[in-house]
C-alpha cells in the first residue's frame, strides 16, 4: 500500500468534475496547491476526507478525488467532528469561508477549536459573500460597498486568526491563495499538528472584491504590507528590511519601528509561536484600522494541547478495562428484577 | 389496631411536596416495592421546570402518581384515592385530584402561618372544616422525624430531609408493602455517607412502626390490593427514556454498527444522553454538542463515516435540526432522530407532555423530504420502537423520526424483559467493490442508496446537498433529473409501507360502530376506556398506530370498516388531519392540551357520546 501512495500525483487527486469557479478566482490556486500536496502526506487516499459547508470555497470537495461531503451552511466543523468520532483513523479536512465559518457557523468554529478536534481547517477569506452575489461579510473592512450595504458597511470586521486564538485553537496560521510555496509549507505544518489546525488563506474574489489583498500580494509593494513570521526570528519587513515590530512594554501594544533609527535590531520582537499573548497581537495586525501595520503571514501560534477525540477514546478504554464488553441481555436484567412463575 | 382492611382491585396514590422534598425518590421507591409485591402498575411523575423553587411555593410542587392493582394497568389513573401532601402548597394544588372520601395524609409540621400564606390559604384547612369531604390523617411528621433520627447527630435541616422516608415508611405500611427494597437502595445511594443512609433507614422504619402502633383515627385502615395475574418471566420496572436508550443500543447491535449519539441538553429528552453516556461498555459514543444543530450534524457526519448517527431532542430542538435532517434525506444517509415531545409552542411547558410534533415530524422540513416516522406507545414499547427506527434507517438509508413524549419518557411500568437472542439481526453490509461503483447505486427492491464509507479503497466519492444525477451521483440541475430524484425519494419511503406490519386491532372487533384510533402515549388511557366500554356492551374497538409514516398498507381499508372513527390526541388535531387528508374518512377528534395525559373517563365519555 505504501508504495502505491508514493506513486500518487496531482492527477490522482483531481476528480472528474468540471470546476465551476469564476475565471481568475483564488480558489483555483488553492485547489492546485492542495492537490499537489496531498501525495506528500503519509496517508492512504481512501482515508482522506474533505468536508465543506456552503459558499464558493465549499465547492472544493467536488474537485478532490477523495471522499468528500458538501454539507450545509456553517455546519462543516460539526459534521467533520462526527466523521472523526466515528472513525479517528480518517484524515479529515474542513474547507470553509469567511461567511460560512464566522457568520452562520461561528458557534461551530468556536467549539471545534475549543475541543481541539483533530481536523485540518482551511478558511478561504475573501472578505465577501461570493455565491450570493457580493454582500459584505463578517470580515469585510468598514465601508465596504455591497448590494446590502450600498452606503458602505458600518460594522467592525472580525479577524479570523484572532477569533481562532480566542477560541482556544492550538494551531493558527495565515497564508495566501496564489503563493504555492508559502501555502504548501504552512499547510504541511498544519497537517502535522495533532488537533484542530486553523489556516486562514487570504483569497481574492475577482468578481465582487477584486484586489482586496493587492498590497499584500503585489510583489512590488508587498514587502511594506506584510511580515513573514517564523518561530525564533525577528519581525522584520519592508523593501530594505528596515522596518520592524516592537512590543512597547509600557502600553503592552505593538509598534512599527525603523531599525537603526528609532530602534536597535535587538529590540525588535522575536516571534515565539508558543506565546499566546504575542500570537494574539501578531495575528490581529493589519486587520483593523491600525494603518501602517503589516499583515503577518506564516505560523502565528503553535502550541499542542490534548485533543478531544484521543481523550474520548482513552477515557473509554480506561473504563472498558474494568468492565465486560456490553452484553445486552445482562443490561436488560441489571438492577431490580423479579420472577413471575 | 383492630381496623378491618379495605379491599381494592386497583388504587391510585399521589405523593406531592416541595420540589426539594424528594417526592420523585419517594415515588420510585414505592413503585419498586409495589412491583415486587406483584401488582401491575403505571406511574406518572409530574414535576415543575424549576429545580428548587422557593420553599412552600405552589409553583414548586412536585408530584408522583402511581396506579397499581390486580388488573392490567396502563395509565397512571384518573382519580386519586390516597394523597400525601407534604405542605399546604402541595395540598392546595393536588386536592382537586382526590376523590370524595379519599384519604389525605398531611404533615401538620409544615402547616404553619408562613407556608399557609405562601399557598394562599386564608385559614388553616386542617382546622376550618374545608376537608370535610375527605378522610384526613394529620401527623406532625416534622417532630416524628426529628425524634427518629436524633441519634445520628444531623443538623436540624438534614434531619428534616429524612421526612420523605418517614412518610414512605408509613405509606408502605398502609399498603402492606415490604420496605426491604427501599432499605437496600438507601444503603446503596448513600454508601459513602453512612450517617445519612442510617438516618434515612431509621426514618423509614419509624414511619412504618408508627402505622403499626399509633392509634390512627377511625376509618383509616390498611389497604389490601391483590396481586395481579402476570405472564410468567423475568420482570423489571422501566421508564420510557431508559427503554428507548437500550433499544438504540440493541438496534446498533442488530445492525452491527457503532452508534454516535449526539445531543444537546433539553427537557424532557436529556435522560437519553445521560443513560447512554454511562454505557461506554457498549459500542456507543455520546457527544454533547454545542447546540442542537451541531448535534444532528455530528450524527450525520458519523453516518457518512459508517456509524449510525443518532440525535435526540424535544420539539424546539427538533425544529433547529430540520435543515440538517433535510440534508440527510438528500444525501440518503441513515439517521435516527428522537423527539421526546413536550408542551409547546416555544419553551411552552418543558416538563409537561404533549403530542403536538406529529406534523413537524412528518412534514416539518423544507422541500419535499419524506421520511419514516415511528411512535412509541408506552415505556416498554420504547425498546422495540427504537429497534424498528434503527432497522428502517439502515435498510432504507434514510433519517427516521422516533416519537416519544414527556409522559412515557418519565413514566415507568413493569416490563416482561425480552430475550435479546430472539430478535432478528439486520446487519448492514457496506459496499466495498470498486468495479462499477457510483455513489448513486441503488438497491433495486428497497431503492436504498449504496453505503460506501470513507476508508474503503477505490470508492472515493463526493456527496452533498445539491441535487444529484440519478445515474451518476454528480451535481445535476437538469429539470427531468430533479423530478426523477424527487419521485425516487418519495417512492423509497412509500415502499416502506410494504415492509412494516399490517395494522392490527388492539382491542375489539375489526369492524363495527366505532374505532378509537390512537398513537403514542395515549395508548394506556384509550386501552382502559375501550376495555371498560366493551365490558358495558358498547361496540367499540381500539386501534393504535406505531408507524405514523408511511401508514400501514391496510389502514384505510381497516378504518373503512367502522361507522365512526374517534382520534384522541394531546394536540389540537394532527393525526385526525392526516387520516382525513389521506383517506377522505370523516374522523372525529378528541383533543386535550393541558400538559396532563388523558384520563380514562374523558375517553370513555367521548366514546359514549359518539355512540349515542
TrEMBL record, chain A:
Alphabetical UniProt keywords: Oxidoreductase
Entry annotated with the keyword Amino-acid biosynthesis: no
Name of the protein in question: 2-oxoacid:ferredoxin oxidoreductase subunit beta
Gene Ontology MF terms: oxidoreductase activity, acting on the aldehyde or oxo group of donors, iron-sulfur protein as acceptor; thiamine pyrophosphate binding
Gene3D superfamilies linked to this entry: 3.40.50.970
Domain Thiamine pyrophosphate enzyme TPP-binding positions: 54-201
Coiled coil: none
GO BP: cellular respiration; small molecule metabolic process
Amino acid at each position: 500500500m505504501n508504495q502505491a501512495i508514493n506513486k500518487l500525483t496531482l492527477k490522482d487527486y483531481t476528480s472528474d468534475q468540471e470546476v465551476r469557479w469564476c475565471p481568475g478566482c483564488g480558489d483555483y490556486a488553492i485547489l492546485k496547491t492542495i492537490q499537489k500536496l496531498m501525495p506528500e502526506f503519509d496517508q492512504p487516499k481512501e482515508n482522506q476526507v474533505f468536508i465543506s459547508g456552503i459558499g464558493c470555497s465549499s465547492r472544493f470537495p467536488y474537485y478532490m478525488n477523495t471522499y468528500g461531503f458538501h454539507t450545509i451552511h456553517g455546519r462543516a466543523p460539526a459534521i467533520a467532528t462526527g466523521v472523526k468520532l466515528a472513525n479517528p483513523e480518517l484524515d479529515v479536512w474542513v474547507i470553509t469561508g469567511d461567511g460560512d465559518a464566522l457568520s452562520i457557523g461561528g458557534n461551530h468554529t468556536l467549539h471545534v477549536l475549543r475541543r481541539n478536534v483533530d481536523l485540518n481547517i482551511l478558511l478561504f477569506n475573501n472578505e465577501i459573500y461570493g455565491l450570493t452575489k457580493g454582500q459584505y461579510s463578517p470580515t469585510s473592512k468598514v465601508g465596504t460597498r455591497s448590494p446590502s450595504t450600498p452606503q458602505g458597511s458600518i460594522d467592525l470586521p472580525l479577524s479570523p486568526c484572532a477569533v481562532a486564538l480566542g477560541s482556544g485553537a492550538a494551531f493558527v496560521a495565515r497564508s495566501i491563495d496564489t503563493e504555492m510555496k508559502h501555502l504548501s509549507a504552512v499547510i504541511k505544518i498544519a497537517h502535522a499538528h495533532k488537533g484542530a489546525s486553523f489556516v486562514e488563506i487570504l483569497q481574492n474574489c475577482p468578481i465582487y472584491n477584486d484586489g482586496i489583498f493587492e498590497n499584500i500580494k503585489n510583489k512590488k509593494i508587498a514587502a511594506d504590507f506584510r511580515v513573514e513570521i517564523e518561530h525564533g526570528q525577528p519581525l522584520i519587513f519592508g523593501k530594505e528590511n528596515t522596518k520592524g515590530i516592537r512590543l512597547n512594554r509600557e502600553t503592552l501594544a505593538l509598534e512599527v519601528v525603523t531599525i537603526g533609527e528609532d530602534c536597535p535590531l535587538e529590540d525588535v520582537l522575536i516571534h515565539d509561536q508558543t506565546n499566546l499573548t504575542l500570537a494574539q497581537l501578531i495575528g490581529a495586525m493589519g486587520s483593523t484600522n491600525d494603518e501602517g501595520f503589516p499583515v503577518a503571514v506564516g505560523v502565528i501560534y503553535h502550541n499542542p494541547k490534548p485533543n478531544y477525540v484521543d481523550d474520548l477514546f482513552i477515557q473509554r478504554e480506561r473504563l472498558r478495562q474494568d468492565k465486560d464488553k456490553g452484553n445486552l441481555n445482562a443490561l436488560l436484567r441489571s438492577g431490580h428484577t423479579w420472577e413471575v412463575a | 389496631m383492630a381496623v378491618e382492611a379495605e379491599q381494592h382491585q386497583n388504587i391510585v396514590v399521589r405523593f406531592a411536596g416541595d420540589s426539594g422534598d424528594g417526592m420523585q425518590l419517594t415515588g420510585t421507591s414505592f413503585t419498586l416495592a409495589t412491583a415486587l409485591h406483584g401488582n401491575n402498575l403505571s406511574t406518572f411523575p409530574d414535576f415543575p421546570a424549576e429545580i428548587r423553587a422557593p420553599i412552600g411555593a405552589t409553583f414548586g410542587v412536585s408530584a408522583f402518581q402511581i396506579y397499581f392493582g390486580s388488573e392490567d394497568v396502563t395509565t397512571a389513573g384518573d382519580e386519586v384515592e390516597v394523597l400525601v401532601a407534604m405542605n399546604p402548597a402541595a395540598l392546595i394544588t393536588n386536592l382537586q385530584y382526590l376523590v370524595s372520601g379519599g384519604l389525605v395524609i398531611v404533615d401538620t409540621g409544615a402547616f404553619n402561618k408562613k407556608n399557609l400564606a405562601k399557598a394562599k390559604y386564608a385559614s388553616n384547612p386542617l382546622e376550618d372544616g374545608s376537608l370535610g369531604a375527605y378522610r384526613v390523617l394529620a401527623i406532625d411528621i416534622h417532630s416524628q422525624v426529628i425524634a427518629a433520627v436524633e441519634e445520628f447527630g444531623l443538623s436540624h435541616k438534614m434531619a428534616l430531609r429524612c421526612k420523605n422516608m418517614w412518610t414512605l415508611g408509613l405509606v408502605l405500611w398502609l399498603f402492606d408493602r415490604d420496605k426491604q427494597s427501599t432499605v437496600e437502595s438507601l444503603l446503596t445511594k448513600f454508601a459513602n455517607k453512612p450517617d445519612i443512609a442510617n438516618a434515612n433507614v431509621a426514618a423509614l422504619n419509624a414511619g412504618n412502626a408508627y402505622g403499626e402502633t399509633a392509634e390512627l383515627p377511625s376509618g383509616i385502615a390498611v389497604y389490601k390490593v391483590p396481586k395481579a395475574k402476570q405472564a410468567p418471566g423475568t420482570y423489571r420496572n422501566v421508564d420510557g427514556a431508559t427503554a428507548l436508550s437500550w433499544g438504540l443500543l440493541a438496534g446498533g447491535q442488530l445492525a452491527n454498527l457503532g452508534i454516535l449519539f449526539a445531543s444537546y441538553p433539553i427537557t424532557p429528552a436529556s435522560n437519553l444522553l445521560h443513560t447512554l453516556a454511562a454505557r461506554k461498555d457498549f459500542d456507543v459514543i455520546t457527544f454533547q454538542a454545542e447546540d442542537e444543530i451541531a448535534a444532528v450534524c455530528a450524527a450525520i457526519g458519523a453516518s457518512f463515516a459508517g456509524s449510525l448517527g443518532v440525535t435526540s431532542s424535544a420539539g424546539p430542538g427538533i425544529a433547529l435540526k430540520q435543515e440538517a435532517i433535510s440534508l440527510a434525506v438528500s444525501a440518503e444517509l441513515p439517521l435516527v432522530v428522537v423527539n421526546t415531545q413536550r408542551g409547546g409552542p416555544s419553551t411552552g411547558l418543558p416538563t409537561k407532555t404533549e403530542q403536538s410534533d406529529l406534523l413537524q415530524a412528518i412534514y416539518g422540513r423544507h422541500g419535499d423530504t419524506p421520511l419514516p416516522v415511528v411512535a412509541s406507545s408506552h415505556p416498554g414499547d420504547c425498546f422495540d420502537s427504537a429497534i424498528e427506527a434503527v432497522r428502517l434507517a439502515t435498510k432504507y438509508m434514510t433519517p427516521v423520526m422516533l416519537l416519544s413524549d414527556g409522559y412515557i419518557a418519565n413514566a415507568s411500568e413493569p416490563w416482561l424483559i425480552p430475550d435479546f437472542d430472539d430478535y432478528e439481526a439486520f446487519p448492514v453490509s457496506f459496499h466495498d467493490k470498486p468495479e462499477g461503483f457510483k455513489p448513486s447505486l441503488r438497491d433495486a427492491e428497497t431503492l436504498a442508496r449504496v453505503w460506501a464509507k470513507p476508508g474503503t479503497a477505490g470508492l472515493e466519492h463526493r456527496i452533498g446537498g445539491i441535487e444529484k444525477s440519478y445515474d451518476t451521483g454528480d451535481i445535476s440541475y437538469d429539470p427531468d433529473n430533479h423530478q426523477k430524484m424527487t419521485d425516487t425519494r418519495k417512492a423509497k419511503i412509500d415502499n416502506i409501507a410494504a415492509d412494516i406490519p399490517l395494522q392490527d386491532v388492539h382491542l375489539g372487533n375489526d369492524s363495527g360502530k366505532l374505532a378509537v384510533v390512537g398513537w403514542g402515549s395515549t395508548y394506556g388511557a384509550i386501552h382502559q376506556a375501550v376495555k371498560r366500554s366493551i365490558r358495558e356492551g358498547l361496540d367499540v374497538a381500539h386501534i393504535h398506530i406505531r408507524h405514523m409514516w408511511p401508514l400501514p398498507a391496510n389502514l384505510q381499508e381497516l378504518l373503512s370498516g367502522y361507522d365512526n372513527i374517534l382520534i384522541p390526541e394531546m394536540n389540537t388535531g394532527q393525526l385526525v388531519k392526516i387520516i382525513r387528508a389521506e383517506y377522505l374518512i370523516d374522523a372525529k377528534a378528541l383533543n386535550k392540551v393541558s400538559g396532563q395525559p388523558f384520563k380514562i373517563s374523558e375517553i370513555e365519555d367521548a366514546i359514549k357520546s359518539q355512540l349515542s
